Fold this protein.
Amino acid sequence: MDTIRNFCVIAHIDHGKSTLADRLIQRCGGVEDRDFRDQILDSMDIERERGITIKSNTVTLPYTAQDGETYELNLIDTPGHVDFSHEVRRSLMSCEGALLLIDASQGVEAQTVANLYLALEYDLEIIPVINKIDLPSADPDRVREEIDAELGLDPFEAVECSAKTGQGVDDVLEAVVNKLPPPEGDPAAPPQALLFDAQYDAYRGVVMLVRVYQGTLAKGQEVFLMHSKKSYVIEELGTLRLERVAQRELPAGAVGYVIAGVKSVQDIAIGDTITDAGRHADEPLPGYKEAKPVVFSSMYPVASDEYENLVKALDKLHLNDASLTYEKDASMALGFGFRCGFLGLLHLEVVQERLEREHGLSLLLSAPSVRYELELKTGEEVAIDNPSLYPDPSEIESTAEPFIKASVMMPERYIGTVMELCRERRGEKTTFNYLTPGRVELTSEMPLAEVLFDFYDRLKTVTQGYGSFDYEMLDYRDSDLVKVDILVNQERVDALSQLVHREKARQRALHYCERLADTIPRQQFKIPIQGVIGSTIIARTTINAFRKDVTAKCYGGDITRKRKLIEKQKEGKKRMKMVGSVQIPQEAFIAVLKTDAGK
Amino acid sequence: MSATGEEPAGLYLHVPFCSAICPYCDFAVLVGRRDKRQRFVDTLLAEIALYASRQRSANEPSRQRRANETQSPDTIYFGGGTPSLLEHDDLERLLEAIRRTFAPRPGTRIYLEANPEDVEPASLDAWRRLGVGTLSLGVQSFDDDELRFLGRRHDAAASWRAIELALAAGFETVSVDLIFGLPGQSASGWRRNLERAAALGPDHLSCYELEVHERTTFGKHRARGELDELPSDEQAELFLLTHRLLAETGYDGYEVSNFARSRRHRSRHNRKYWRHVPYLGLGPSAHSFDGRRRWWNERSLPRWQRALDEGASPEAGSETLTPEDLAIETIMLGLRTAAGVDLERFEQHFGFDLAERNSDLLERSIAAGRLRREDRRIVPTLEGLAVADGLAAGFELST
């Protein structure tokens, strides 16, 4: 066990996390050069393309250190976004130490701080790594000062490297071996293994990623999952070296995979504790938290004949993503689709993108909504996340919406604008405290719904990219909720209906109206667009009729070309969604809804 | 869809030569020297001869009717390009061959497009003697800056002079082509052009809006961001101004881009295109139509020439129009004309009541002031004429 090191790399975005991981893997011979590709741990196209990590991954690196000993280094790659903070936390839990990567020219950034504090919460040993020292603008000495002043870490512990050129990578590995503690645990105790992520394999079913804390897991062992209370027999287990390498057992301290005949990720709960079926551990490990969807949106295929494909695609995606929920839904304007639940907006975007990319679907999504709790006059309590199911206001006694505790970390110069932003977003009990001189953490209790609507974008803007944002769910609080409908030429577009706080209704409705007016092409008729609460108009815009489209000349008898143009126009109209007598192009829905999705 | 034979056919000859290529021109044109033009005329004669031989083989009783329809035109149109570049004896040779082969009807109208710089008393005289009835002058503008922008080789003074000379030469109809909607063109700038044209008083005016096509020089400029088209609302202004001002000065806008001082000056030839009357097109890129089938010649001069050199047809493609194609075209073309769509005729040809099938659309379009019902016709208003394409695309035709 003394030769095992479990660690992760945490960093501000673009500070070179994936590149460093790639280089460590290459240095340890984890992959043949010819098999190597950048961002090797990110297997999904979308991860590689956006340079983000969504699923946790892990790789075991055999490393012969300068002391002559061969170590087993388990690099656990963690997602880097608040939507996946459960995964982040569980991944951190599986480590004893972390490399805190800092760009040699950018220096300490907001997420550097946020990640550091998260890692410290799990009592990880931290090694600061100053990356990109090959850059002409690199200034490692200044970064060391920042490490001291802003992070409160020992600047002399910092290792310098260039993940790009490979310079200093050996020093990083030596630091991992020498400065990070080996895991502890008793291989003979009743097993306690954290299930920190799972992947779906078309041939083997669910592949569980585990970190063993106590005891030993072995092939053929009957295990028990303490939260879901199910038993399985281990068919195969082992370590991951980009490929699965089967072993006979995984003792305390080990990180690896377990295959136990689990058919679908729905059957297990990430964060669960695996123990022996006959010899239970006293208690499960902390870290289990049910991943509940908090953001809801309806998805419709752009072409209605793609509905069946959407069903298949969702079923398939769900195998690998237990946190996604979905049920059938139908819209007058957009046809049949699904009401889906997501962990957050990035999760929503990722799901949409995977459906579109991996399954070739073209989708429309309705405005994201939170789940509201309503008490009816009858005393009955209902939860509503779909505006189309919102009861008549006369039947409603009270409404409540979920609040979060938002925390924003930023350089102190942005306090004013961020407090203003929080106030705009109905933030309550906004307070701040200094993490270090110049660095502030601001917390505010605000409705989750306010965060769904481009909060993250705005935060990035007002803090010029320096603000980092995280949140946790608090509770439900009473709220003055109204349903805003959008009428296009007097017809309600159900997919654009939304539940909002009364104070925000007018602003939101106007935003939608203006967006639609910008994106719906002019038609033969003047089209009024209105935002209404019930029958009260709260916002309006108008699309003027177009006035000129006729081509000048039908020349030389080439009528065919002209007819083709008209046919093309007719064809284009078919692809639009008809709302009453108005054709609304898909792009209009996308443009309206996209602003909401934020980033 | 006009029953074939109801109206005599039209004959079109495409002369693909210009003295310079205008940066907006999307036609099959090229700059060619005299010897090339000579060879072109020879090949065009060969194409006419090809039809002559077909006519002989078609003179069996079963095909006689159809042959007659396409062979007896009452319009002969020399378009281009710049047909006024052709030598007078070349024109004469062509007309002779046409008379021999297609037996034009008595009173056949001959049209010739001419550039102002080619208009001289001697050439006007020659064209008159060859029987040209309508001389169509590519004036385009009365403003030197605009003419330079359009890449034209004449100036405003030449425009004036050409029109005056042509009007004095005694043609049945003198028509003037103008272009509007130039980048940055103001309503008052365009109005000056219209007023000058009206003051000179040609019998017919064609006012085309500048269209920037991808493959043209202007298209490339636009792609590079060097040419900003006039915004659509301003185009609409100029379009409405054109129709209103010309109506006030006695020109009847009988089609989107065409205006005539009186009915007899309207283009008999163009009307055939708009009413599905058969026409035969000769020369590179020319289109032909026999009532059901439309075909078109090779667009490039060398290809067209090669085919005919080998005694083969220069046809590059064709389509047979389905009743639905014909119906779409009927609406699309009808709504471009002041006469609109004749519902009676439509129902006779396509077997359903267009107005009934599109009652919602009609109601809305009438309410919006874009269409009118006149007895059994759907007629575009001026505002409707401006959006004829969109109106046409809105009609439901499937059964």
